[in-house]
Amino acid sequence: MTPSPATPDTVAIELNAVLVALTANQPQVLTLDDGALLPSGPFATEHPTLQSGVRAWVERQTHHPLGYVEQLYTFADPNRPASDGQRRVVSISYLGLTRERLSAGPRDPEWRSWYRYFPWEDWRTGPSPLVAQSILPRLATWAEGADASARRDRQQRIQMTFGDGLENWNEDLVLQRYELLYEAGLVPEAKAREAKSAGADPVPGMPMRHDHRRILATGIARLRAKIKYRPVFFELMPPEFTLLQLQRAVEALAGRPMHKQNFRRLIDQQGLVEPTGGITSEARGRPAKLFRFRREIVLERAVAGTKLPLSRPL
Amino acid sequence: MTPSPATPDTVAIELNAVLVALTANQPQVLTLDDGALLPSGPFATEHPTLQSGVRAWVERQTHHPLGYVEQLYTFADPNRPASDGQRRVVSISYLGLTRERLSAGPRDPEWRSWYRYFPWEDWRTGPSPLVAQSILPRLATWAEGADASARRDRQQRIQMTFGDGLENWNEDLVLQRYELLYEAGLVPEAKAREAKSAGADPVPGMPMRHDHRRILATGIARLRAKIKYRPVFFELMPPEFTLLQLQRAVEALAGRPMHKQNFRRLIDQQGLVEPTGGITSEARGRPAKLFRFRREIVLERAVAGTKLPLSRPL
DNA sequence: ATAAATAATGCTCCCAATGAGCATAAGGAG
DNA sequence: CTCCTTATGCTCATTGGGAGCATTATTTAT
Question: Which residue range forms the structural domain that includes residue B266?
């Protein structure tokens, strides 16, 4: 058909993006096709860099500038040959942060809270009931279905990644948790591939096509880990904000609540923000001072590191 | 010439590896061509995974198993078209840890201490004199050669990455430091490209071809960051070792000295090791107990995290 | 032998970071 | 005027980690 019979060591590059924004205290992700896909596009070789390639089609598709871009992972999917049936596809995924939402029409590029895909990851109002009620029991059943040594192994992994449903929750382990559920056949994506373990019905949470939910998990995990030592949330905030808004933003990303006074102490200890002089009383309660990020410090912390009151399990 | 006129969106994949081992308290890296290159090979599409591709040619080339493999970064070099002059090359680099050294003959695959490439990164015996004597002065000169605003910017970056030559050294910033030197035209690799800044002669440290020294810097940085929260040094140690040997290993990687008593406290607090019962008096001084890693805990920490007395600057 | 150097170990002290809460101030809604 | 909600200031207790003293056990030098 095509004039080029695709030499063996030649592949096509596909770029995937996890684009994150914050709206109404929800961490939003840009999706396509009714939420089933992450935006992705080919790497056109005229781009000098991979990053510039990403930026190009993302901005073309969303009409919004990307604040921060970071490479996530490169993956050669053995089960997804290119459409021409010849070349292998290597997908390179990126995490992108953007400040504003797509002003788009009703359809296609659509922002969705990432907790629709990973409802068990939201512990902002305390331990997610999903874990104790729905996930742990099914995982336990799965663990039972193995012989002694494998069972012990599975049980330990469950404990390490999901804790006990009330304590020992480590919000960074997004990817490990998804992979465990996948392996246990508790997400629809897994069942598609393995006709065998038709047993358990899936855990709540919207699936995606291909490995896109896995990529999303990777992005969330990376972002959650990152905010603990780099002030990247800066990229997601409007130019002015109150400290509570900032706290809610971090909580949205981390998926767990934080102590208000300690959060404030940490933030201004590090000199990350400065008051603009303005005051707002949009919310109820006592009016709050408005702040902005301090450019110099943010640049400095970009290399030196930040701290957030997020670390210990519980 | 070739029957396939290479369609535009087609690229060739090249795999690069930073292979690390520890010998005689030196962090060793496998190199080729008299130390000028990192091992690299093509990604043959018959491999199901990228990782398996890496493992395959690494083990073929070195005849040693890879303990731990981790993806580093994917990079499309705009300046290095494939040899056929048509396809773009995308290189995917990996970090690999191995316990044993190549038993190889005198030549080619050769292990070299990574401090030959980055001598300023070795602070194990205190502040590296190179930084204060050789690097900081030249960087200062470089900063002077810019107008006011850019100068301030450069000075801040110098301070952030190199500190002041005595304190505020952050061992993780290997890549940032290399990139700064590159930008300042203080490494030979940079001069090759820019004929202009022929000024300063380069800083000590052996260069590599292409961007391989940059990839190496990425690997070192990743490893240094990693040992602080994952017990990966486990992959580099022999089955039995003394606590001092373990400490020296970590110091070799981190490039800075550690407090002996505190190191021990931390290690056994976390239950990472257990005594084998053996005792050694290979070195001078009081004989030391031998330890081995505790498999269960190591697996557990692989997900949950570890601690090392490495964090603060100074 | 004896002294000196090198390592292994045990323990104490101190300080900075941080998790938790109490208390007070300042607006808006009924 | 009272209650509710949020902003802010401060205190307290705990802990993790940095430093260093002291002691013990061996090898090496004199």
Answer: 231-304
